[in-house]
Batch of 2 targets.
Target 1
Amino acid sequence: MAKQEDIFKNVVSHAKEYGFIFPSSEVYDGLSAVYDYAQNGVELKKNIREYWWKAMVQMNDNIVGLDAAILMHPTTWKASGHVDAFNDPLIDNKDSKKRYRADVLIEDYAEKLNQKAIKEIEKARVRFGDAFNEAEFVATNARVVEYKAKEREILERMARSLGNDDLADVKALIEELEIACPESGSRNWTEVKQFNLMFGTKLGASADSAMDLYLRPETAQGIFVNFLNVQKSGRMKVPFGIAQTGKAFRNEIVARQFIFRMREFEQMEMQFFVRPGEEMKHYEFWKEARLKWHLSLGLGRENYRFHDHEKLAHYANAAADIEFNFPFGFKELEGIHSRTDFDLKAHEQYSGRKLQYFDPELNENYVPYVVETSVGLDRMFLAVFATSLKEETLEDGSTRTVLKLPAVLAPTKAAVLPLVKKDGLPEIAHQIIADLKWDFNVAYDEKDAVGRRYRRQDALGTPFCITVDHQTVEDQTVTIRHRDTMKQDRVKIADLKSIIESEVSMRNWLMKM
């Protein structure tokens, strides 16, 4: 645990030191769980967004984009259920005065049981080698069976209690499991209460006439209320999807773990409209498709797992999370939900307007069912950033800090370094930059010795360093250094574009899917 905490502290520290993420309004001591993306962070975030958009919208003939407003008519949130049901179970520790989500405390306890089971499996894998049959071991080993059964029992009971709004039993479960405050170790808990997560605001010129509004807690509803507008104007045929990225706002009870859980965050969502009765087929398709997209970035298959929901949201008939192994353990990265026809029917009811599709093949009108994919852009940023940050020991015994970002996402694709600040080398370097910047985000760096500049670019995640030296003047060649291997090649200036393109193009990365 201590090691994980140290890794996470290094992630937070590195993000600030190298211009990726700053605490918001830090000159005023900051604002809890609100962050600013700095000069390198904004580029990385933009590249993740574009990588998602390319795969989701541009590469699918039947998915189009949308950018709905953050402010929506307040009845939207009544229809969606957010006014009445968008709550988290809150519990306070009387001794530490710390506030927690009761369900997260229970889920963390259950995850410890799962980790114990995984340790038993890994020990057996080492012991039995190639002869190891994991499925048989999981089904027959007494300890693993006990851990798994206990984990399942806990999560199923919590799901039932939350589904029935039985908050007393949620507290009883916490007490029975002897869950203590992570900070103080105290088990002196308050009752569990429901806490609505929406931010309220006002629309109007005066307090007397102002309308009460909400900052949207999710981007999905902007898609649902525009379903028919997009379908008709785009002549879309079911099945089809509407995708968008944008800010959402939640007054989180416990906003910790850096940018993992913030009060202002960005989502990348797609709502896929399908025929009633066909939703599970599309649900299974999108589960696998979304996992393939994540795996295309090369962060390691072992860092992902599916988690099927025991407790379903009021709108869903199936739901699963793609969980990622963050420095603080496996947590939700993306959700795939079968939302049935709840949203469109609710907006029909509250608006008095039909939101139906005429299917020419069936010759009938119906309200489509919806399969949703929703990934947090900030969580995606954290997953990529934290996994890419490495401390390496080199052959000579020295160490380097390197941010091994997927090259397609790197904020700067190449840094051009003149060996010295004279003899015409800076001028050649600037000429190279002037040519490359039409296609890539590139940087110029002339301060310090070349070795220090290499280390600085390693820490920034720059895939290539291009060094201009005196030989360049003679034969128009440069040294190109590869971040991950530190291998150096002598290449022609004219070949730089194709070399970089081969490593950073979305086409080459998405072809891995």
Note: The radius of gyration is 26 Å.
Target 2
Amino acid sequence: MRHGFIKVAAVTPKIRVADPVYNAGEICRLMAQAGDRGAKLIVFPELSLTGYTCGDLFLQPRLLDEAKRQLLRVAAASAGRDALVMAGLPLEREGKVYNAAAVIQDGRVLGIVPKANIPAYGEFYEGRQFAAGNRQTVPFRLGDREVPFGTDQLFVCRNVPGFVVGCEICEDLWVAQSPGTSHALQGATVLVNLSASNETVGKDEYRELLVRSASARLLSGYVYASAGEGESTQDLVFGGHNLIAENGVILAQGKRFWCGAVYADLDIQRLLQERRRMGTFGGGEGGQAYVKTSFCLKFGETQLERKFSCTPFVPAQEEKRQERCEEILSIQAYGLKKRLEHTGCQTAVAGLSGGLDSTLALLVTVRAFDLMNLDRKGILAVTMPCFGTTDRTYGNACRMAEIVGADLLEIDLRDAVVRHFSDIGQNPDDHDVTYENSQARERTQVLMDLANQRNGLVIGTGDMSELALGWATYNGDHMSMYGVNAGVPKTLVRHLVRYYADTCGDRELKEVLEDVLDTPVSPELLPPQEGKTAQKTEELVGPYELHDFFLYYMLRWGFPPDKICRVAKQAFRGIYGEETILKWLKVFYRRFFSQQFKRSCLPDGPKIGTVALSPRGDLRMPSDACPDIWLASLETPDGNGGCG
């Protein structure tokens, strides 16, 4: 449960209809199995103690009395089990029978939640046997104790901040105003649904959509446990379609027509962070009527089974990745199109180095010009060889400009930079930061002045990963008149160029783009060694795939450093060891904080995804904030670094 991870289980027992004794035994057995697996929340289906398909047998006192006895048996079996357990049964109260969920923990029943919405359509005739549950919570005698009975209840874990559980039953999810909505507005971060949803063709897709959308709309976890094949009788077949979702994403689901358990690790901290970030969530009316029952779990380490993609900005599925690339290129191109139209410019000036970022900027500019039906000769592609330029990148820049039909201009910067060195007293043999940045600023000066000459716009090439790390020369490549790549992380830049290569339909362009993709990432500011790039960015600041991972989980989900390190260890297992991850994570935090002053004065650029660094939109961060408390969380008590 450290870092907010809670293992949950949706469990479908193979029951016998109208046999509470047998069913209670199965529930106890599976409860023990799920507890041994580490589940802290265990959910069984609707009416699982008796079976859902008992029909008019629900009106028989013998069945009702036995179900209540077996509930107490299950509760007793939960003693010492470190989990909150929910199981369904019919209960009689004041002459009415209710379809209810019993909430059980450590040997006792904490509360009874009745089903609020009783279906009476199609194959459902529950109104014949069951009454709709009341919102107002009233006492209910169960054995020698009274427990709260009503729909408006929450179950609050005292020692796991934010772990608050609300319950609804089957049809409650399918109605326009679900109890889960009210639960979430009153603080529930995890919703459970005890269900007996029979199978018809296509119903599984709709069921999954409901669970996904409920978890997304309510910024919650959602655990859906459905009745399985033991229920199948007469005209109905049940498939045990169990689902676990978090904020719109299905974390786990069981195959249909199967009995058993599915597990997932919900991230409560992540849900709380999303609610804080949204700012518009919460504040539901009627909270004063809610009964909140507290319980306590042993605080321990959740053995993570949850998977984390090592490229969170890049969809794993090929089809989805291609759709995403097309969408991003369109966002970039239409953003630039609007700026060109608004300013009346018909010339775009782009520095073209033969590297990934400038290549993407050129391709986006080409697309924008095509959208505006402008002659591509209005794109001025400027290659500016200097001390670090290699034949490979120079050749690719020239070929690319020629193939796309841009106007190519070559300006050798060596003499200008040497003159500048002389003016400021810089030793040309001293390859320090002044040596490098002088070249970057000279490039930018040339581009800006060319844009002035031609009434054009300078197209920025720097990507979001470089902005996060401050890997840009202030008022050099840091500056432009519109930064088309500002919202694109480096790991995604590569896929965008690859997508363009695969879909452009031009063999020559595809060849040059593939060579660009094979070229090491470098600013090419230091002299080549034996004709090859001497300066490889990732050897200096660290692997971009790590930094993009860190950036995503820091900004999008608010993970603290030790939690980022923990999930990075899982995501990059077999690729990077803990020592390497920790080293570059510290570099990331130091650079991210120290370089905010560059991001505070960024040029405009299109927002692409949920993570963005614009000071006018997503990131309002002081330029002089201190990173010490973040870095301190990566230190263990003995002073050595650790990933938690």
Note: The chain has a mean pLDDT of 93.
